[in-house]
Design the sequence.
């Protein structure tokens, strides 16, 4: 992707991965109400411009909706899976304060993130075999240096049951 437009660094994977907000599993929808003008909404505009792409990247299962110029003061509304709604005021805060506040009230804790990462590492261990959805390899034949699957490459005759029986029978004659 060419590095064109306003702040193209916002579209790099390195920048997107630096986001610190990973929502709890109960957060389903996030709505952002902000104004494109006015001094009190400057933090909200910077939050939308710089931090929303990071939040989208880290939380692909959360639906994020933007509402511009529909309210006198900027705020965030979160809809949880229990039907509950959480309102966050952004009027006099800068984008850093908004991110920290969201992370503190609706983000996963550091120990939870570390535990999930360890679980992910355990499941992706190279010694585990199973469906691609859960493991790196489906079959032992995918490991370098192992005998390939007989369905793909025929085994040598001496490695099959019929081949061994024929070798024993010819050795006895």
Sequence:
């Amino acid at each position: 992707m060419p590095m064109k437009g306003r702040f193209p660094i916002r579209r790099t994977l390195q920048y997107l991965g630096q986001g610190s907000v990973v929502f709890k599993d109960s957060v389903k929808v996030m709505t952002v109400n902000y104004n494109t003008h006015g001094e009190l909404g400057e933090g909200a505009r910077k939050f939308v411009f710089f931090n929303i792409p990071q939040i989208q990247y880290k939380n692909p299962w959360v639906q994020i909706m933007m509402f511009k110029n529909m309210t006198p003061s900027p705020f965030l509304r979160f809809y949880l899976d229990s039907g509950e709604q959480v309102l966050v005021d952004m009027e006099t805060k800068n984008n850093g304060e908004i991110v920290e506040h969201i992370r503190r009230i609706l983000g996963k804790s550091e120990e939870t993130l570390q535990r999930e990462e360890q679980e992910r590492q355990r499941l992706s261990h190279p010694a585990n075999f199973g469906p691609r959805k859960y493991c790196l390899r489906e079959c032992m034949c995918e490991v370098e240096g192992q005998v390939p699957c007989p369905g793909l490459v025929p085994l040598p005759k001496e490695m099959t049951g019929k081949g061994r029986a024929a070798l024993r029978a010819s050795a006895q004659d």
Observations:
- The chain has a mean pLDDT of 89.
